[in-house]
């Protein structure tokens, strides 16, 4: 039994010694390619379209909020009039409280809806880019492509940056 253990150890050692040269050669050929997803989102036609849609919704929400704020200011002016009756003053105070509540609700709803829309639009773009990346990786037989910011890449050789290539393919796919 002792002889069998020695034979196994010798075989394992030979595998490690002879196998390391093979592994080392493969490790030297291995490269990690990367993309900058934020750049693709910002510069692609699809990303620009999503940004424009989001900005349009933001402007609509801001317009509604501005209108309510102006109504509140007008009621405040009405309340400051010395000629206002007690009954009218009470009605205006109730009205201003209602408008302030409406303003806060609209502000919260707008923020929630805009955040949700931004997540949806970004998620759609990311999913579509991932499909392009997977196809590119498969076509070019690349072992691995990571997202630059998520992977925590501090420094990398730009020759492994596929961002511009993926950006072109993705923008072309969206037209």
From TrEMBL:
Recorded coiled-coil stretches: 44-123
Keywords: Coiled coil, Signal
Record's GO cellular component terms: cytosol
Keyword Coiled coil listed: yes
A UniProt-annotated Pfam family: OmpH
Keyword Coiled coil: yes
GO molecular function, one term: unfolded protein binding
SUPFAM superfamilies in alphabetical order: OmpH-like
InterPro entries listed in its UniProt record: Chaperone_Skp (IPR005632), Skp_dom_sf (IPR024930)
A Gene Ontology BP annotation from the UniProt entry: protein stabilization
Span of the signal peptide: 1-27
Family per similarity comment: Belongs to the Skp family.
PANTHER family, alphabetized: CHAPERONE PROTEIN SKP
Name the UniProt record assigns to this protein: Molecular chaperone Skp
Organism: Desulfurobacterium indicum
């Amino acid at each position: 039994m002792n002889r069998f253990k020695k034979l196994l150890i010798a075989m394992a050692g030979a595998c490690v010694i002879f196998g390391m040269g093979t592994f080392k050669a493969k490790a030297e050929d291995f490269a990690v390619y990367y993309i900058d997803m934020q750049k693709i989102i910002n510069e692609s036609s699809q990303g620009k379209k999503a940004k424009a849609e989001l900005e349009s919704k933001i402007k609509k929400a801001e317009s509604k909020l501005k209108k309510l704020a102006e109504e509140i200011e007008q009621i405040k002016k009405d309340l400051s009039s010395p000629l206002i009756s007690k009954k009218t003053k009470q009605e205006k105070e109730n009205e201003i409280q209602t408008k302030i509540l409406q303003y806060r609700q609209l502000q919260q709803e707008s923020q929630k809806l805009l955040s949700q829309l931004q997540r949806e639009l970004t998620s759609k773009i990311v999913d579509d880019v991932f499909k392009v990346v997977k196809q590119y990786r498969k076509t070019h037989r690349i072992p691995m492509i990571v997202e630059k910011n998520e992977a925590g890449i501090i420094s990398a050789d730009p020759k492994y940056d596929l961002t511009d290539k993926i950006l072109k393919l993705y923008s072309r796919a969206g037209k």
